[in-house]
Amino acid sequence: ERYYSVRMRAARNGTYEGDGKHISGGELLSTYNNIKQAVNALLDKALTHSRGNPDFMQIQFEAITEPIECIPPLTIKTHEVESADRGKELSQELLAKAGIQRKVIEKAYRYLEKYSNMRGAMLVDIHSGERVDDRGSKGVRVSRMDWLNDNFEKWAAHYGLPNHSRMKEALILASKVSAYPATVAELCWSDDPEYITGYVASKEMGYQRINKLKEYGDEQGCRIFFVDASREWDRYLYYLEKQPVFIHW
Ligand code: PML
Predict the structure, then answer these.
(1) Atom 11, ligand 1: residue with shortest CA distance
(2) Domain boundary residue among 65, 90, 110?
(3) Do 90 and 8 fall within a single domain?
(4) Cα(198) to centroid of ligand 1, in Å?
(5) Which atom in ligand 1 lies closest to the alpha carbon of residue 195?
(6) Are residues 23 and 90 in the same domain?
(7) To test the ligand 1 pocket, which listed residue (42, 189, 194, 223) has its Cβ within 8 A of the most ligand atoms?
(8) What is the pLDDT along the chain (249 residues), one digit of tens a residue?
(9) What are the residues facing 128 on neighbouring strands?
(10) Strand, coil or helix: what is 232?
């Protein structure tokens, strides 16, 4: 069956060229018959976002011609911490466990102050700690991925997890990204001021949620991929942005 990549981007004071305050983004894969529903789901996501009302939105679809790869979801574990400070500490401990040097972790955290309105991910080299994508505040947007609802619901029921669209989307992205060997680890939390749970993920550790990684009201989000990709940079970017992936349990 033929699938379409359906994507959305919403901003305030945005333009087709991409400036403005990032409000929301979304990615789906849809059959032709479901495009209407997919577009509606993305429209709804952007119109009800707590970062505010967008005044610019783009929703587009495009047929996928490449074969779609199937990837299992990462294992999942939740840590409960009492404060955002403790959550940040724990995220650093987990990143260190994934093999990232302390000074690289600290350097990556400092980039968040420099790039405070990112829409995609920052890619940080695990050897130098330098940011290695050249995408500025756009960052790298992982695209062309989804998890069919029936299969996701079976998975969620099996692990007794809530059918939670935000976690689902994040787990789809983290599972896709960490399946590529050049990804050593990911650090992420939302830019939604009302959502403070984030995660550290890697292929080996799985998806390690941390219930507090920032304070309520904070609109600073984070998505950093720690990468070891010097030799295969173009292929890696192609994988993140173009390789279609279904998560399948
Ligand atoms: C986002 O909002 O895009 C990131 C959410 C990350 C955490 C989701 C979760 O596991 O609850």
Answers:
(1) 167
(2) 65
(3) no
(4) 5
(5) 2
(6) no
(7) 189
(8) 899 999 999 999 988 887 899 999 999 999 999 999 999 999 999 999 999 999 999 999 999 999 999 999 999 999 999 999 999 999 999 999 999 999 999 999 999 988 888 889 999 999 999 999 999 989 999 999 999 999 999 999 999 998 899 999 999 999 999 999 999 999 999 999 999 999 999 999 999 999 999 999 999 999 999 999 877 899 999 999 999 999 999
(9) none
(10) coil
Domain shared by 158 and 92, yes or no: yes
- Do 163 and 45 lie in a common domain? no
Spatial separation of the C-alpha atoms in residues 79 and 201, rounded to whole Å: 13
Ligand 1 centroid, distance to 191 Cα (angstroms):
9
Instruction: Please tell me the distance from the alpha carbon of residue 114 to that of residue 132, in angstroms, as a whole number.
Output: 15
Are 24 and 117 found together in one domain?
no
Task: Give me the residues paired with residue 76 across strands.
Answer: 207
Tokens of residue 135, six digits: 């995408």
Verify that 176 and 103 share a domain, yes or no: yes
Cα 244 to Cα 122: distance, rounded to the nearest angstrom: 21
ipTM value for the complex:
0.97
| SS3 category, 143 | coil
Number of domains in the chain: 2
Q: Which domain holds residue 233?
A: 71-247
- pLDDT for the residue numbered 192: 95
Distances (CA, A) of 201 to 8, 151, 228, 238: 24, 21, 15, 21
Same domain, 38 and 76: no
Q: Are residues 208 and 116 in the same domain?
A: yes
